[in-house]
Amino acid sequence: MTTVPFIELNDGVSIPQLGFGVFQVEPDETQATVEKALEVGYRHIDTARIYGNEKGVGAALAASDVARDDLFVTTKLWNSHQGYDSTLRAFDASMEKLGLDVLDLYLIHWPTPANDTFVDTWKAFEQIKADGRVRSIGVSNFRMQDLQRLFDEGLTVPSVNQIELHPALTQDTLRAFHAEHGIATEAWSPLAQGAVLQEKAVTDVAAAHGAEPGQVVLAWHLALGNIVFPKSVTPERIESNFASTGLTLSEDELQAISAINRDERVGPDPSEVS
Ligand code: NDP
Asked: How far is the CA of 258 from the centre of ligand 1 (A)?
């Protein structure tokens, strides 16, 4: 029986460190996929308005007999909905699709620096939290200067920053900045969408432990303190990814995996997304 650790966020809310991501899960497959994840033991689901599958996530939650208090649900505000009033409306629309009264974590999906709207958007996030409709608020794909801008405006320090992070893009500088400011690091594309699973450092460690490469990469994230939510529509992978909490790597093994870093993204550069 594997146990998922919890991480305490800067507002006192606890988040399961291992969750399940649903980016690129087809809307009509989402309910069954999330039901499978819940059956395996995942209690933290990461979706977004732009994924088009919040309804399927909500249907799976409604059909499940897992108590609401044992579930942790994140969704994200899409770029075109940024701005104070449009954020409030977009939040209501996401909540209706998810069928929830209170959300666990709401994120600004991208800073879209060229649009210069994330400060007003963040003020709407603060209001939603003050109204008790979300337990924690955070950001995604924020660069150091974007986080600094929120600090300079005297606004709430985000509870998390969800960024692309995996062995080929270890984000050491941004992770240290998060730690300095009490922001938890969430790692998106934790497996680099599969691109790091054939790395020799990963396959060597996997062979030494009789484990799957995916489990090794997830165990590396967990040891570093990252919050992760690998995506899979394959039942065996949904199971084996969950079992990564049972794998402990040595300091040398962790360092060998970190040494894969080549600052290489599989997704877009936040400076360029608008
Ligand atoms: P992941 O790194 O989780 O990789 C998913 C891919 O790897 C899928 O193709 C999946 O295939 C495959 N895979 C999963 N497990 C294994 C395994 N054990 N062995 C081999 N292959 C495996 O990528 P994602 O981009 O989906 O990231 C995870 C989550 O992060 C997303 O679902 C989303 O919630 C979040 N995210 C957030 C972003 C943001 O901007 N905030 C951007 C991107 C992602 P298959 O499904 O066919 O099994």
From this structure: 19
